[in-house]
Design a protein that fits this description.
By secondary structure, this protein is of the alpha/beta class. It is 43% helix and 18% strand. The relative contact order is 0.13.
Length: 382
């Protein structure tokens, strides 16, 4: 009996060991698990929710078409509330749940923290929208969006090439990595292109609802345009307060302003009239984007923004890399092969046609949209 008990105990220990290898995910043995992290609650939830929903739509389409290399896809998504420590905890949970490929995190600070963990684990990480340079500092990390410095350069070139304005004021969030990186590259490029920065006004995310001081300072200058390298939440306050103050400068920003209509509300849409911002995403750009927009609206009763497109494209990029490498989760050298495939693929996404160099940055075109009656339309320019 002692021998039988010992054999039974040994068998139970072996089964427990195998259960540990499954990382707690009952679907792990027959699923390609992709893990995402981003703000799903709080002031910046619009970005995380958009990325999550865009990714969900792509996963649904892929599974209906047979999965990735015949393996169904499971998307797991965790809320980090734009907090780096919460993002790392979320990453660890996703790894415990069997994550094969990481979407990093939606915002830059959180993404940088997650990238350290993904590098240690050696798994492929593709951030849809982590735009700071350090988000993809390791050779296993890639991004869908533009980097902050790229946006700054592109914004300055657009304003100069199209003679939009020569004298520019800036309102930026000095406590935010995205805002600082975007602003600094814009200022450097603007100087080279003959644009004049007449005022730089800073704020912190601890005091981001009243911008009267910054706007009054700018009103005393001859600024023709106010540059906003910030997120939509703060931009909504700035635009409504500027309109109330009778300011008539042009407002221009980057991809962080996508989603401004939701933030500003129906009663204040007039304050966004003529607002311009850089984006690689246009809902009506081509047949693919028209279909994506219609499917997204049907699924979520909302119009997709760039972040939804980023999430959608990130999933299809993972699919393209896995199919190019010919690998499935659990295959020998899965991580090495799918990472290597990233620099060998081309993806025709909703945010543009993309290829990736070894530095993890996408090579794709930027565009500018202008809002009229709350609706973005392509800006014809250079």
């Amino acid at each position: 009996m002692k021998k039988i008990f010992a054999l039974a105990l040994a068998a139970m220990m072996v089964l427990a060991a195998f259960a540990g290898c499954s990382n707690g995910n009952s679907a792990k043995d027959d699923s390609f698990v992709i893990g995402g992290i981003g703000p799903l609650t709080g002031d910046y939830a619009t970005y995380g929710v958009s990325v999550k929903q865009g990714a969900e739509l792509a996963v649904k389409e892929i599974n209906e078409a047979g999965g990735i290399n015949g393996v169904p896809v499971t998307l797991l998504f965790e809320d980090d509330q734009v907090d780096a420590e919460m993002a790392v905890n979320a990453y660890n949970k996703l790894m415990d749940d069997g994550m094969d490929v990481s979407l990093g995190a939606v915002t830059s600070g959180a993404c940088i923290a997650v990238s350290e963990k993904a590098h240690e684990d050696g798994i492929l990480m593709i951030t849809p929208s982590g735009s700071q340079v350090e988000c993809i500092q390791y050779d296993n990390a890639f991004r869908i969006c533009f980097a902050d410095p790229e946006q700054g350069v592109n914004a300055a070139k657009f304003l100069a090439n199209n003679n939009v304005a020569k004298k520019i004021a800036i309102i930026y969030d000095k406590s935010n990595d995205y805002s600082n990186g975007f602003k600094e590259s814009f200022v450097a490029s603007a100087a080279e292109l003959g644009l004049e920065i007449v005022s730089e006004q800073a704020f912190t995310n601890q005091s981001n609802t009243d911008f009267s001081v910054q706007l009054q300072a700018i009103a005393s200058t001859d600024a023709e345009l106010i540059f906003l390298p910030i997120y939509a939440q703060e931009a909504a306050y700035i635009l409504t307060q500027a309109k109330s103050a009778g300011m008539d400068q042009i407002f221009f920003g980057g991809d962080g302003l996508d989603g401004i209509i939701e933030k500003i509300g129906a009663d204040n849409i007039a304050a966004t009239e003529g607002l311009m911002f850089l984006t690689p995403f246009d809902t009506q750009a081509d047949e693919q984007n028209i279909k994506f927009t219609a499917d997204y609206q049907a699924a979520y009763n909302a119009t997709p923004d760039q972040f939804a497109g980023d999430g959608y494209d990130a999933i299809y990029t993972i699919k393209a890399a896995a199919e190019h490498a010919g690998v499935k989760p659990g295959d020998k050298d899965f991580n090495e092969k799918i990472i290597a495939a990233m620099t060998e693929i081309t993806v025709d996404g909703t945010t543009g046609t993309m290829q990736w160099a070894a530095d993890g940055a996408p090579n794709k075109a930027a565009a500018v949209v202008v809002l009229h009656d709350g609706v973005p339309s392509a800006y014809v320019g250079k």
